[in-house]
Specification:
By secondary structure, the chain is mostly helical. The protein contains seven helices and two strands, in the order αββαααααα. It has a single domain, classed as Arp2/3 complex 21 kDa subunit ARPC3. The radius of gyration is 16 Å and the shape is globular.
């Protein structure tokens, strides 16, 4: 990896750590409203797939090692094995997929990546939450639909902010448009 790749990953990880701290506990949901999903979508537009993947993996590693980077300043392996762990552990796959689809198919690819990525994230998250809480999968899934709608709004916001930035970056540094992850 080049120094510039490592720098991008470090900056992306820092952004993701800060975004996760913007968290609102929701009274009826076991999963808080955070901006970490926004950050993942945003970074997936700006970064090549490998950088997106490495950024989110670094975020999870920092949290697993005890740094308070997860929502609400939480950390540790217990979080990854707890009620939000399935969501967190699916994020690297989601980030890679969205970035890969966006880099290959532009706007259409982003939305296909978002759709498939959110399906993966919600399936993994709800499965783990269902197992831990001993609640039927379908009950939790129905309860999570309002959060899914919020995540779709985050996807719109992330694309609205990130896409113009990619156009400017392609003009400033033409080699980044050909760079693949």
């Amino acid at each position: 990896m080049k120094t510039s790749d490592l720098t991008h990953i470090a900056l992306g990880t820092a952004f993701l750590c800060v975004a996760a701290q913007i968290s609102l506990p929701l009274p009826v949901f076991p999963v808080p409203f955070t901006l970490q999903v926004f950050a993942i979508f945003f970074l997936s537009v700006l970064m090549p797939p490998r950088q997106s993947l490495m950024t989110v993996l670094m975020y999870i590693l920092l949290g697993a090692l005890g740094l308070p980077v997860f929502a609400g300043g939480s950390s540790g392996i217990g979080i990854l094995m707890g009620k939000t762990g399935g969501f967190l552990l699916s994020f690297p796959f989601c980030a890679y997929l969205i970035s890969w689809m966006h880099k290959r198919f532009d706007t259409y690819g982003y939305w296909v990546g978002i759709t498939v990525g959110l399906c993966i994230t919600y399936t993994a998250g709800v499965l783990q939450l269902s197992f831990i809480s001993n609640t039927p999968f379908r009950v939790i899934l129905w309860g999570m639909l309002p959060l899914l709608l919020m995540d779709l709004l985050k996807a719109i916001a992330a694309y609205t902010v990130a896409y113009p930035i990619t156009k400017v970056l392609k003009q400033l540094i033409p080699s980044t448009s050909a760079k693949e992850g």
